[in-house]
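Researcher: Go.
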Amino acid sequence: MPSPLLSVIVPVYNTEPYLDACVKSILSQTLQDWEMILVDDGSPDGCPKMCDEYAQQDTRIQVIHQANGGLSHARNQGIKASHGKYIAFVDSDDTIEPDTYEGNIAILEAHPDIDVIQFPMNRIGWGDQYYHKPAIYRGKKELFLNNYRNNPIDNTVCMKIFRREIFDCILFREGHVHEDKMFVLQMLQHIDVLYISDIGHYNYYRRENSIQTTDSLAKTSDWIDTETATLQYLYLFPELKKEWMGRWMYDIRWLMNMKYKHQEWDVLPLLKGMYSVRPHFNLNASAKNLFWYSYIRMFGVDCFHRKYLYLLQRKHGKNE
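Model: Structure:
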């Protein structure tokens, strides 16, 4: 039996109200040469039964049932079971417009030098749409600059189609959140060409009480870990010195605001991790960033932690 052109991997966990719309949006694709791999990640609701029913209705649908291992593990298992020339991902509470895959895969077929294609995303409930004019980016430097500066290359994997050879080099980091950002950081180090298309749409829905909309110290720690890895890679690009300082200080202030919001959290180890990748060169930065950067270098992380938290408490106390 010939391999399909496209493998669509759908991790499934506790999304019973949304799964039918998700699967139907893939079934409605104008592209017909695909396989869908539904990875039931130990879902406690009616999703496992629904997955089996879909597979009975369409031979292009394959189901994997497994104990809960998280989104990255489910995606990795789907990749290992896939046969397509290209691989795409859809989260089981999202949908994708019918013309998305056919038009974008036609571009990939016509241009074998393109490793990854990115298409528009409609962020429903988030208040915005992610769209950039068609563009092609070549080489590590250009790819990374356009991921970090003005962000035409987004960190979301579900709005992309990948050549399967990419997954011979990298898989998703398991046991963590913010898996998309870390994967894209690694991806940009292994590909040569990415094309931004204006064909189709991925519909990304904001769901209350989802992992994206809830806080946790573990999630915050993962974010800082991912940001630290990004900042370390940034050292290779002197053009981004100003952005380096801005991002470094943004992460530190964001972390302190999370501490103010969750007083019981111990963020000192995370601050010290950020301090370990501080810049050792003069940077063109805002006065505010330079002030706090100098304060941290002069007085240390512990003193900064106390001072900044005190100032946040005074600021918010006056507004309450």
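Model: The two ends are 67 Å apart (CA to CA).
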